[in-house]
């Protein structure tokens, strides 16, 4: 019995088991087994075969965005519109067979956009080069899920299921659980909040399934067994995702309004070039990028060349970006902008910068 059969057996068992107090331990064990088999499926086989042709592209620019979607939803058309790269687009499925990179220039930042081949159902098991596509998506900062507005809901649930089964968690934050395996001393279990979904017995059962008998577990929020399994496995990727509904020119206004009001969703039309500027604004927001301008003493700030950083970057990060020796020679910095109480404010290395701040660094 191969891994795929085992996975389908467990999924059937879960679907036909009623959810109640008596079966929650049984379901918890099944979920742990399922996560274990899926992890084995993702690991490359040890047997030496010829090395497959991967299609990961070298990371460049300030951020990386992956385009994921079913075949023929307009990913290549979107790439051709947004960047200077022309990706072949035609009215048949699987026009794109490899990863095609392009660069969006927006607010002084270079954002790398990856046009990936279409995903089909069962991609997580390796159908239609699905594994390589998903492996590239794991390295991105934000996923844009391209959906056909005429059949969006079905596609969305299928794609979410595929990505979830390979350990990509969309628009979710990491569960606040402290977990540390130890050499001995059994399992010490504690929680700072009342738990409604997990119990000590269930936690022990799940840990025993992973052959962990000595560990420290502390729940700082009310988490489900699935989230606890994610923490044990530890190779989950939590990333923001933007659901983009393309071809909105083919549906009614009421339907467009309904789709546009859904969380994390944007409606566009690549054919008629509608709403693409709003999509770029949303993408900038999701990437959490900020522009910081530099200034020399006695001169005007240089607004032509911005330093692109992540939101929450400190003065120390800016120093490292300019030159790696600058932080060690740092004396103080003068900052103008929204992050200061008054302009200019004299700050140290720990000061957090905000979008469009101007900084002047003084060395020792």
Question: How is the secondary structure organized here?
Answer:
Layout: H1 3-16, H2 24-42, E1 63-69, H3 75-82, E2 100-106, E3 109-115, H4 130-138, E4 142-148, H5 152-165, E5 168-170, E6 177-181, E7 187-191, H6 200-209, E8 215-219, H7 225-233, E9 237-239, E10 241-246, H8 253-260, E11 265-267, H9 276-287, E12 289-294, E13 307-310, H10 315-322, E14 330-336, E15 345-347, E16 357-363
Parallel strand pairs: 1-3, 1-4, 4-10, 5-9, 7-8, 10-11, 12-16
Antiparallel strand pairs: 2-3, 6-8, 12-13, 14-15, 14-16
Keywords: GTP-binding, Nucleotide-binding
Domain OBG-type G: 63-288
Function: Catalyzes the conversion of GTP to GDP through hydrolysis of the gamma-phosphate bond in GTP.
Structural notes for this entry:
By secondary structure, the chain is of the alpha/beta class. Helix content is 30%, strand content 23%. It contains 10 helices and 16 strands. The strands form 4 sheets. The chain has a 6-stranded mixed sheet with strand order 2-3-1-4-10-11, with helices on both faces. Strands 13-12-16-14-15 form a 5-stranded mixed sheet. Strands 6-8-7 form a 3-stranded mixed sheet, with helices on one face. β14 and β15 (345-347) form a beta hairpin. α2 packs parallel to α6, α2 runs parallel beside α7 and α6 packs parallel to α7 (225-233). It is globular, with a radius of gyration of 24 Å. The termini are far apart. This is Developmentally-regulated GTP-binding protein 2. Residues 288-363 form the TGS domain. Catalyzes the conversion of GTP to GDP through hydrolysis of the gamma-phosphate bond in GTP.
């Amino acid at each position: 019995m191969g891994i795929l059969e085992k996975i389908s057996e467990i999924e059937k068992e879960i679907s036909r088991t009623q959810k109640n107090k008596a079966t929650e331990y049984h379901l918890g064990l099944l979920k742990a087994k399922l996560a274990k088999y899926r992890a084995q499926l993702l690991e490359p086989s040890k047997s030496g075969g010829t090395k497959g042709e991967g299609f990961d592209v070298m990371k460049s620019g300030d951020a990386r965005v992956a385009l994921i979607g079913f075949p023929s939803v307009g990913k290549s058309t979107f790439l051709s519109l947004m960047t200077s790269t022309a990706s072949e687009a035609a009215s048949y499925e699987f026009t794109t067979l490899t990863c095609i990179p392009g660069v969006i220039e927006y607010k002084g930042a270079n954002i790398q956009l990856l046009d990936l081949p279409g995903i089909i159902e069962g991609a997580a098991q390796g159908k239609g080069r699905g594994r390589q596509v998903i492996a590239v998506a794991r390295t991105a900062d934000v996923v844009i899920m391209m959906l056909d507005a005429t059949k969006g809901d079905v596609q969305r649930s299928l794609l979410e299921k595929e990505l979830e089964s390979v350990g990509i968690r969309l628009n979710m934050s990491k569960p606040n659980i402290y977990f540390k395996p130890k050499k001995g001393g059994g399992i010490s279990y504690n929680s700072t909040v009342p738990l409604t979904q997990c119990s000590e017995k269930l936690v022990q059962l799940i840990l025993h399934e992973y052959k962990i008998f000595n560990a420290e577990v502390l729940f700082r929020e009310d988490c489900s067994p699935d989230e606890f399994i994610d923490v044990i496995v530890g190779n989950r990727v939590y990333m923001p995702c933007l659901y983009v509904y393309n071809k909105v020119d083919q549906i009614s206004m009421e339907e467009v309004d309904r789709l546009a009001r859904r969380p994390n969703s944007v409606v566009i039309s690549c054919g008629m070039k509608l709403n693409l500027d709003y999509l770029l604004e949303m993408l900038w927001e999701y990437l959490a990028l900020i522009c910081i301008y530099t200034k020399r003493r006695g001169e005007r700030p240089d607004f032509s060349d911005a330093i692109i950083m992540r939101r929450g970057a400190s003065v120390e990060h800016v120093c490292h970006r300019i030159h790696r020796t600058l932080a060690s020679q740092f004396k103080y910095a003068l900052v103008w902008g929204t992050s200061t109480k008054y302009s200019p404010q004299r700050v140290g290395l720990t000061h957090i910068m905000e979008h469009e701040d101007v900084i002047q660094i003084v060395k020792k």
